[in-house]
Amino acid sequence: MKIAISTSGEDLSAPVDTRFGRAPRFLIYHMETGTFSLKENKQNLNAAQGAGIQSAACVCEEQVDAVITGNCGPKAFAVLDAAGIKVYTCGSTAISEAIDQLRQGQLHPADEANVEGHWV
Amino acid sequence: MKELVIISGKGGTGKTSITASFAALADHPVLVDCDVDAADLHLVLQPEIQTSETFVSGHVAEIRTGDCTQCGLCMAVCRFDAITDFRVDAMACEGCGACVEFCPEKAIDFPEQECGIWHRSKTRHGSMVHARMHPGAENSGKLVSLLRTEAGKLAERENAGLILVDGSPGIGCPVIASITGADAVLVVTEPTLSGEHDLKRVLQLVSHFRIPAMVCVNKWDINKEMTSQIEALAESMNAVPVGRVPYDAAVTAAQVNARALVESSDGAAARAVRGIWGAIQKQLFAEECCHVAS
Amino acid sequence: MKIAVASGKGGTGKTTLSCAMAFAAQEKVTLLDCDVEEPNSHFFIRPEIEHQEQVFRPVPAVDETKCTGCGECARVCQFNAIVTVNGKTLVFNELCHSCGACVRICPTGALHEVDQPIGQIETGRRDHVRFVSGRLDVGQAMSPPLIRRTLEQADAESLTIVDCPPGTSCPYVTAVKACDAALLVTEPTPFGLHDLKLAVETIRDLGVPFGVAVNRMTEEKNPIQAYCEAEGIPLLIQIPEDRRAAEAYSRGEPINTVMPELNERLAQIPEQLKAMI
């Protein structure tokens, strides 16, 4: 199982970035092997609008099964949902801790967007 | 950290004057002027600019005359009547890129557009993020989002408890960008038929985005009956009336002297604004105002 | 002739001036309320509404049986309004600018345009005033398409007064650009002067001739007058500060009823602007 986590950091000790659409990058974590890679989200930071949509598309390219982030807007959620990617939300905790929480079943998949957004 | 956005629906109701007073009353807030079309908060707060950056957003089409064969396809695809005589009117160009995509000679450039300039500044009441759009520039909603994001970063760095946002009038794109994801909205209105009408529309918008709303009536004594009617309307739309400000020449006098009303007057209007600030703090830091993710 | 009544700052009296000029006109006149986010002139004109029509704009819709998920539409869209994931194409209407590029590029003809409602246009009449007002639906972000449709209702034969949106960005530009001349309304405060300067800068870029109106004039020294003199801008009318005017406004009464002495001056403004074209 592959997971994308929004972050401004570069390793597992960095905190989860609570912004999905305007997160600087995604840490792509492989549950089975415990390894990870980084996927830059740079082009989206300067998009005039629809950053959430583009971030979602960017994550879809990595063919992940789930996303961990803080806040996911309705448009990004619609894209992830269409691609069959589950969205888990958490606070601004360390990535490693968020992964542990997911392993232990403490994070629940969101069934709708948790922030209303237009440009976010 | 809380983010309060002050908006008005109708323009000219005293939104910026009231925001400036809140800036003086709050404990070191981070201030943001999101009325990027008619940014006036700096006239009162006299910010000392620390950093300035250009705001680049979107693109504009430019035909390279030398490569253009005048086939006319660009004019046929442009939905915005932005091309006449094989020249692009930058003001009319929407930046959609249709002409760029379909030009058979690839004779149309599509450079990024500089839309304005934004600043991080210091004021006597706290840090401030503000901007100036170039005349006629587009993407003011995007600029508003950028200013709020930068204010959030500043507030985090400074450990500020409050971000005060001077929003824009209307119900369109800059306002939507001003309020999405905020903790609460204060609508400053006036007791007129237009004020009531515009309040109703802007409260519909605020509730569409599920943001708790408060309302105050400026110049309330111009039409006392209308003031009561407006407060009843506000309550019926789940907005909390937090006070009334009387008509007072001290408001304009403060503006002329580049002071916030509460800094330069102890008159009736200044006392009313202090009272409103007290009521807002109670609302803002009460539980029921916190259901929007922060 | 089309006259734009505009201002950088909101609440300076655009609607007051537009309606007052319409009532003071000696002949047939059309008033277009293009402040579609917050249209207010109907309170003062109180027209008998004769016609109401829904305004739409085109947005793309996907025929899933024809879509191959190639993603060309998403690539061409500058507004991030379309995305293709796992062979599925999703459209986000709120972000669409109705440019039509996606429909044109689609290689399989899987996209076509459908009408999305964005607001209404009301048409009516009172005495010699023909009244047209655009009204944007709440939650719609983009007002220019509706402003353009409202402007199409101008009368080519007689005088048209356009109550414009505030600010200096796209809605303001859309409305002012379509007019032959403009009246910029301001108030004698630092905010008023600052925003007037921005409006002047923008309108000079647009090349539309203009004059200035000052609302809520007091006896004190007026910074607007000095600015206009220095810039060579004609100051066409000054309306005195008067609590009766504010009260009349609050009840939706035009300023002509409390200050009938202004009518003559108001009726001259279109002529003065015409001479500047």
TrEMBL record, chain A:
<dbReference type="InterPro" id="IPR036105">
    <property type="entry name" value="DiNase_FeMo-co_biosyn_sf"/>
</dbReference>
<feature type="domain" description="Dinitrogenase iron-molybdenum cofactor biosynthesis">
    <location>
        <begin position="14"/>
        <end position="103"/>
    </location>
</feature>
<dbReference type="Pfam" id="PF02579">
    <property type="entry name" value="Nitro_FeMo-Co"/>
</dbReference>
<dbReference type="InterPro" id="IPR003731">
    <property type="entry name" value="Di-Nase_FeMo-co_biosynth"/>
</dbReference>
<dbReference type="InterPro" id="IPR033913">
    <property type="entry name" value="MTH1175_dom"/>
</dbReference>
<protein>
    <submittedName>
        <fullName>NifB/NifX family molybdenum-iron cluster-binding protein</fullName>
    </submittedName>
</protein>
Automatic annotation (TrEMBL), chain B:
<dbReference type="InterPro" id="IPR027417">
    <property type="entry name" value="P-loop_NTPase"/>
</dbReference>
<feature type="domain" description="4Fe-4S ferredoxin-type">
    <location>
        <begin position="84"/>
        <end position="113"/>
    </location>
</feature>
<dbReference type="InterPro" id="IPR017896">
    <property type="entry name" value="4Fe4S_Fe-S-bd"/>
</dbReference>
<dbReference type="Pfam" id="PF00037">
    <property type="entry name" value="Fer4"/>
</dbReference>
<dbReference type="Pfam" id="PF01656">
    <property type="entry name" value="CbiA"/>
</dbReference>
<dbReference type="InterPro" id="IPR002586">
    <property type="entry name" value="CobQ/CobB/MinD/ParA_Nub-bd_dom"/>
</dbReference>
<keyword id="KW-0067">ATP-binding</keyword>
<protein>
    <submittedName>
        <fullName>ATP-binding protein</fullName>
    </submittedName>
</protein>
<keyword id="KW-0479">Metal-binding</keyword>
<feature type="domain" description="4Fe-4S ferredoxin-type">
    <location>
        <begin position="59"/>
        <end position="83"/>
    </location>
</feature>
<keyword id="KW-0411">Iron-sulfur</keyword>
<keyword id="KW-0547">Nucleotide-binding</keyword>
<keyword id="KW-0408">Iron</keyword>
<dbReference type="InterPro" id="IPR017900">
    <property type="entry name" value="4Fe4S_Fe_S_CS"/>
</dbReference>
<dbReference type="GO" id="GO:0005524">
    <property type="term" value="F:ATP binding"/>
</dbReference>
UniProtKB/TrEMBL annotation, chain C:
<keyword id="KW-0411">Iron-sulfur</keyword>
<keyword id="KW-0067">ATP-binding</keyword>
<dbReference type="InterPro" id="IPR017896">
    <property type="entry name" value="4Fe4S_Fe-S-bd"/>
</dbReference>
<feature type="domain" description="4Fe-4S ferredoxin-type">
    <location>
        <begin position="58"/>
        <end position="87"/>
    </location>
</feature>
<keyword id="KW-0408">Iron</keyword>
<dbReference type="InterPro" id="IPR002586">
    <property type="entry name" value="CobQ/CobB/MinD/ParA_Nub-bd_dom"/>
</dbReference>
<dbReference type="InterPro" id="IPR017900">
    <property type="entry name" value="4Fe4S_Fe_S_CS"/>
</dbReference>
<protein>
    <submittedName>
        <fullName>ATP-binding protein</fullName>
    </submittedName>
</protein>
<dbReference type="GO" id="GO:0005524">
    <property type="term" value="F:ATP binding"/>
</dbReference>
<dbReference type="InterPro" id="IPR027417">
    <property type="entry name" value="P-loop_NTPase"/>
</dbReference>
<dbReference type="Pfam" id="PF00037">
    <property type="entry name" value="Fer4"/>
</dbReference>
<keyword id="KW-0547">Nucleotide-binding</keyword>
<feature type="domain" description="4Fe-4S ferredoxin-type">
    <location>
        <begin position="88"/>
        <end position="116"/>
    </location>
</feature>
<dbReference type="Pfam" id="PF01656">
    <property type="entry name" value="CbiA"/>
</dbReference>
<keyword id="KW-0479">Metal-binding</keyword>
